[in-house]
């Protein structure tokens, strides 16, 4: 629990996940400022979580000691310039969740080299089960690092990475990762339907299986590979299914997919850096 004010700039999907997680963890919604140009978004967040809402970004920033930038990367330059003067008053810690937006670019737009923490959360933060990578610019003090970690730990597991580049790897792994697992669930559900199950049964069994597998992986000291072996009876049904997934080289496919996400994060960074 904290009494300091956090200003969320942008109140979309990621901000909502973080706000939901923080409120569930005991943060008072009244200590969370949110600005967004969409009034319906602000109304929803206020009604659901009791946050203070602002149509103007600078008004949300005033009085806040932490800024959480939850904008699309392409909006970053314009909005940072817009809030720079208001932010300069209290020199807040700036936490950015924006994929591919470099610390240096944020400092350039905000002016005065403020301390920046790049955080790469994912949407399960909404149910306090996020996976969050963190990196701090050299200006961030030990207190600042602890403060950022405390905020993000309220919504999931946090890991500091050694270099800013590695945030792009985190983006490709756990930032985008929920979508990979949701796609796998969609595919498994469809497979169940193709085998004659009704849609609801296929969906419920798929989701519970994903939950059970994840819970076992979290609670076990064995790696996922060992847990997989225990499901796979020699000459049994799982073995037959896995043969197909391995023949299609799922590992190579996953590496290609993650590399594409990683590459895209790099493209966003380069485009933004070139515009400085
Ligand atoms: N959705 C996800 O799973 C994850 C997203 N991210 C990052 O979070 C950031 C936001 O993504 P989402 O929340 O998914 O996008 P979103 O589109 O849901 O949210 C962006 C919000 O910014 C608002 N906005 C637009 N112009 C604005 C302005 N001038 N001032 C203030 N707010 C403005 C929009 O109305 C919208 O509500 C992105 O940079 C993304 O890379 C990071 C990790 C995971
Ligand atoms: O798709 C995106 O660009 C964002 C970053 C990670 C998850 N969603």
TrEMBL record:
Superkingdom to which the source organism belongs: Bacteria
Listed transmembrane segments: none
Positions with a binding annotation for NADPH: 57
Listed GO biological process terms: L-proline biosynthetic process
SUPFAM superfamilies: 6-phosphogluconate dehydrogenase C-terminal domain-like, NAD(P)-binding Rossmann-fold domains
Positions of NADP(+) binding: 9-14
Pathway: Amino-acid biosynthesis; L-proline biosynthesis; L-proline from L-glutamate 5-semialdehyde: step 1/1
Domain Pyrroline-5-carboxylate reductase dimerisation: from-to ranges: 164-267
Database matches in PANTHER family: PYRROLINE-5-CARBOXYLATE REDUCTASE, PYRROLINE-5-CARBOXYLATE REDUCTASE 3
Family: Belongs to the pyrroline-5-carboxylate reductase family.
Function: Catalyzes the reduction of 1-pyrroline-5-carboxylate (PCA) to L-proline.
Protein name: Pyrroline-5-carboxylate reductase
Lineage: Bacteria, Pseudomonadati, Pseudomonadota, Gammaproteobacteria, Chromatiales
Gene (name only): proC
């Amino acid at each position: 629990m904290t009494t300091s004010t956090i200003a969320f700039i942008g109140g979309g999907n990621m901000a909502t996940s973080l706000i939901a997680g923080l409120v569930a963890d005991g943060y008072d919604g009244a200590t969370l400022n949110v600005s967004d140009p969409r009034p319906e978004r602000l109304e929803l967040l206020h009604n659901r979580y009791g946050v203070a809402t602002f149509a103007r970004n600078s008004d949300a920033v005033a009085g806040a000691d932490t800024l959480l930038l939850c904008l699309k990367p392409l909006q970053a330059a314009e909005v940072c310039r817009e809030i720079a003067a208001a932010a300069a008053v209290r020199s807040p810690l700036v936490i950015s969740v924006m994929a591919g937006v470099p610390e240096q670019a944020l400092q350039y737009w905000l002016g005065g080299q403020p301390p920046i923490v790049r955080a790469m959360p994912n949407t399960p933060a909404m149910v306090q089960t996020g996976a969050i990578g963190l990196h701090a610019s050299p200006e961030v003090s030990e207190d600042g690092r602890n403060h950022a970690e405390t905020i993000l730990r309220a919504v999931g597991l946090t890991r500091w990475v050694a270099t800013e580049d590695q945030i792009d790897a985190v983006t490709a792994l756990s930032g985008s990762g929920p979508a990979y697992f949701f796609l796998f669930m969609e595919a498994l559900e469809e497979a169940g339907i193709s085998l004659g199950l009704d849609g609801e049964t296929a969906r419920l069994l798929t989701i519970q299986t994903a939950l059970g597998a994840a819970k076992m992986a979290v609670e076990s000291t064995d790696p996922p590979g060992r847990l997989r072996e225990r499901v796979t009876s020699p000459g049994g049904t799982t073995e037959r299914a896995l043969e197909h997934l391995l023949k299609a080289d799922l590992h190579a496919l996953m590496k290609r997919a993650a590399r594409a996400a990683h590459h895209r994060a790099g493209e966003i960074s380069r485009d933004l850096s070139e515009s400085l």
